[in-house]
Amino acid sequence: MRTILACALAALAFAAQAQTPPPGGQAPAPAQPLPPNVPAVKLDFYQGGPGDILVSKLKGARVQNLQNEELGRIEDVIIDEQRDIRGFVITLAGTEKRTTALSAASVIFARQADGAVQAVINATELGLRNAPPFAYEGAGVRR
Fold first, then answer.
1. Does a structural domain hold residue 67?
2. Residues 51-88: pLDDT tens digits?
């Protein structure tokens, strides 16, 4: 009987704790419903490999050309609806707001001795300055 009572009290304490808002009084926002027609996918796990690069390492990575001239920095990664990397948004060197998007096929990544990742492209500074600007409108939501 004591065991049953102890289990019941523990369950009630756990339920009360789960309903208590976190410090600061703000409860987490409820999950949004999925859009219609979202297919279920099989859950699979991935361990990573020696040649893999995390997206977090790409943000801010230096972009240089074959002549070792710095052309800019990676600002963002573009992923399509099939979850494939389509391109990289770069901020051009010497500017704070001028961006362009490069196709993923035109960028090669190299690891530096210190572990940093560097992007290499076959372009000139002038060629990038004449490239079409990238606009986030219509390319997903930027927060």
1. yes
2. 889 899 899 999 999 999 999 999 999 999 888 999 99
Alpha carbon separation from 56 to 3, 52, 59, 103 (Å, rounded): 49, 12, 6, 19
pTM: 0.67
Q: Which domain holds residue 78?
A: 55-129
Per-residue pLDDT band for 5 (boundaries 50, 70, 90) equals: very low
In-domain check, residue 89 = yes
